[in-house]
Amino acid sequence: MLSKLFLSAAVFGLASAYPKCSAPLPTTTAAISPSSSATTPPPSSITTAPQLICTGGSTIKTTSDCTYPSITYSYCYSAPPPLTCSEGFWPGHISYGHCMDGEICYKLNETWITTTCAPNGQTAYTTNTLFSGTLAGGVSTVISAVQCACGANQWYSWGPTDGPQSVYCMPQTDCPSGMTTSWSTNTYCATVTTPSYCSTDKVTTPYCACATGLPQYPAGGGAPTTCL
Fold it and tell me: Which positions make up the signal peptide (predicted)?
């Protein structure tokens, strides 16, 4: 027991003989490494649109927008089966509205099909083929329509009835026997506040009119020679 006390005293005395000092606390630097679960986004790139592939016998058709012709688009197109009409009818096209059209069966004797010009001075200046082919019953048919107009330096005069028969081609100057010079007034250009809009339109235009009766035309059309 006495020896233990002596050993403790010796250790205490030895420790007291040296000055006390304080050492700095050790520092720890943590090394941050990328987590294995983080992903690096791929570099941005521009890819082209997938190529249009048509199946079932359809083909690629490129067309322009009917409202904005500068805009074009492509799509897969399959031609519809030809329109079949009953006997006495022929297949044609019809416009339902803006950018909308389709096929329809017309009668062979449609009143709007003009085949000859009215005998009032008009002459045909173009002919359009509306249909050419074989109709029901095996009849080979060509359906054409003519567009008629008055000659140069002639005035369009309308009669008391409707339709092509009411249009009379009248000379504007050098009125023949039985006619007098009349004047047509463009009421809009006579009162418009912006003359540039009517710069190419005459406010008044002369034309020949029958004093009495109706104009008489030569065979085959042309300007009238007199009035009866």
Answer: 1-17
